[in-house]
Structure formats: structure tokens, C-alpha cells
Amino acid sequence: MKITFLGAVQEVTGSKFLIQNNKTKILVDCGLFQGSKKLTTHNWDTFPIEPSSIDAIILTHAHIDHTGYIPLLVKNGFTGKIYCSQATYALCAILLLDSGHLHEERAKKNKKIGRPHGYPLYTVIDADYSLQFFQTVDYDKVMSIGKNVTFTLTRSGHILGSAFITLSDGKKTITFSGDIGRPNQLILKSPPHIKQTDFLVLESTYGNKLHAENDPITFLGKIVNETVAKGGTLIIPAFAVGRTQIILYCLYQLKKNKSIADIPIFLDSPMAIRVTNLFCNYRNEYKLSPQLCEDIFNVATYTSTPADSKHLYRIKEPLIIIAGSGMATGGRMLEHLKNFVSNAKNTILFVGFQVKGSYGRELINGTKKIKIDNQWYKVHAEIRSIKSLSAHADYNEILQWLGYFESPPKKVFITHGEIEASRALKKKIEKHFGWSVVIPKYLESFDLK
Hints:
Blueprint (H helix, E strand, L loop, with lengths): L1 E4 L10 E6 L2 E7 L6 H4 L15 E3 L5 H4 L2 H6 L5 E4 L1 H28 L10 H7 L3 E3 L6 E3 L3 E7 L7 E6 L4 E4 L22 E5 L12 H15 L3 E4 L5 H14 L8 E4 L1 H10 L10 H7 L4 E2 L3 H6 L8 E4 L9 H8 L6 E4 L8 H6 L4 E4 L2 E4 L3 E4 L9 H8 L8 E5 L3 H15 L3 E2 L6 E3 L2
Parallel strand pairs: 3-4, 4-5, 5-6, 10-11, 11-20, 12-15, 12-16, 13-14, 13-15, 16-19, 20-21
Antiparallel strand pairs: 1-2, 1-22, 2-3, 7-8, 8-9, 9-10, 17-18
Helix pairs in contact: 4-5, 4-8, 6-7
């Protein structure tokens, strides 16, 4: 086998890993580059290999930085099968169509103001067409691709449907961590331990960071109460898959225990609403009882239409708005920033990783003004973050997970992290275990011998 790294190397997004075994070509993940213009421009580059030559795609999970390139690959000639868990398919049916819509809207805006890319990377129709190539796979079931390659999905606890992928040619195995979930999560089950593989492709999003150990429910309650005391609105940019549902769980507990005032909560993200509505269908993924799952997701009022969203600006009393996107790079969150970021009464609360180039990263780093749609907005709102809600394992949790391997992998490939995080995790693994660790470069290939 041979592996070539087509994305998510020395950066967080664009996960694409090509495995070749004789004439069989398999792509593990097929994600978009996100964040800065420098990164997103790569989405328009000619794909490094002919899409029609790829036999299959296997997905670790549904996040767009792992799946969002699929409609374009299909548009350009891919006709193989796309393997994933049942929940990942259900989420892709939501996320990919939403991604197509965002590309269409961005293209219209670019064309209107004379920017490059006045046509969409792909459309909603392209995204919908790509769904016919998906084939769902049960966890822990051995599947075959071509003559010599088998693979297995193992639940990974990062988001609904997420999985570790182990590929084998009968002689060697390679495991892809995707994004590793954390132990002892509020909703999802903890990730299981992998005990054996010859090669490991390992994420490093938090390779140089530890998550805060404070109770996120108590911390969120404190922020809610402080904002209410100022008479302001709490804006929470949240990823539609995973983070939104955890925030609703926390707010449900706070209201149930009367730890916060009984103020209105609005879920203002059509995509997050659709994801939340299907969450309770996958009982093997989470720790809640079916009734509690339903109760938690009824804590908020769902604002489905743009008119419902705009109505929120007329509410004068304190309220909580959860909206996409999680890094404040698009969606209804941009309109909320325009309306709320310049008022000192309000709070903008970030609850996840903020990639370089995103508004979220700028705000957390203390910028005093942001430019949205060619207009500058002064930042007077209080900017806060909760660091204990991440769905990614931090470096200590990754080291603990690695500690269950019964024998060392021949090589560990560090991916999906900014270069500082990747280098830090590399040093920690080498020091702690003495394993062979490498940080690949873009388009670099390795023979898996």
C-alpha cells in the first residue's frame, strides 16, 4: 500500500488521504479547505489525480472539512461508492446541500461586486446528485474494496456517526483517526480504544493545548447570568452538528435547575434544526434516554425562516441566540454579528475551535473592529469562549488513547492541525512512547511497508 496526503497537512481543514494498492485507489475523506482566502482558494485548484480513477471514498464523519469536496469530485468524474456510517449519510444529506447553497450565494455576491469566482464551486443540484453514490456501513463490519483491500468503521465519539477507519491489504493495516472524540462526554459515548495497527494517521487539532477542566454547564450559566444582568443578548456561534446539541443540553440543565433566568432561547440555524431533529434517531451513539433526548431539544424555539430570524432583532428583553456558523464565517451568524457586536450589553460566546482567517479567530484574538460585507463594525460586545466543550481530544487525551496500543505502529502520520500543534504533538509522542512520527507535506507519498 501507498499513502499520499492531499489535504489537512500542516493545517486543519481539507482532509483527503489517498491509499493505493496495486490498481485500487481509495480516498479517505474528501473535505473542503476552510478559513482564510489562502486556504479556500485551494478548493478551486485542479484535483491532483483524475477523479474517475478513484474506486471508492470512505468517510470518517460528516463535517464539511472532511466531506465538502465530494459534490465537486462527482461533478468532475468520480463514479465509485462512498462508504460511511448510517448517521454520517443522514448528516451529509443535510450538510452537503447546505454547502451547495452557500456556494451559490457566495458566487452571486462575488459576481455582483466583481470578485473572482463569480460561479459556484458546485450547486445544490450537484450536492444532491452526489448522494446517490453513498453506501452506508455498520460499525465493526469488515467490508471489501477491489480484490485485496478491506476496511472497518469503528465508532469514534467525535460527532454523530463519526468513525475510525482501519484499512488492510491482508499484510499491513493503516488506521485513520479522523477527529477523535473525548472521553466522558455529556451526550455522546466515549471513543473505544484501538489496540493494534501498523500505521496511524492521527489528527492534531489540539496537539498543543489542554481543554479547561471547569464544568461547562456552570460556566455557561455564569455567562448567561452576566449577560442578563446587563440587559443584553447572548449570541452563540455553534457548529450545527454536535456543538449545537451540547449547548442545548447545557441550557436544558440550567433551566431545569433554575440556575438561569427563564429567558427565551432561539435556535436560529435551519441546518442545525434539521440535524437536531434527527439526532434522537441514533440511540446507539449517545448516552441519553429517548425521552430526555426529546426534552433537551425542546428547550429552544426554532426559527426556520429568514423572517423569523429578523424578528429576533425586535425583541428588547434578554435572550439567547444559537446560530451557525461555529466560526462565524457565514450563515445567519454574520447578520447577528452586524446587529449585536457593537453593543457592549451583548456577549458573543465561542464554543469551539476557531481556524485562522475566521471572524471567530479575529474576535477571540481581541480585534477592535471587523469587516463584514465591505462594512466595518466596531467590537464593543464582550467576547468570551468556553474551552471545555470541544469535541476534539486534547493532547493529553490523545496520549491516553495512544497508550492502549499493545504494540507501537511502524509510523504515525500527524495531520489535521496547524503546524505548531502538529509539531507539539509529534514531540510529545516521541518523548512519551519513542515511536516514529512524521508530519507529512502536501502531496507527499509514503510506501506502507
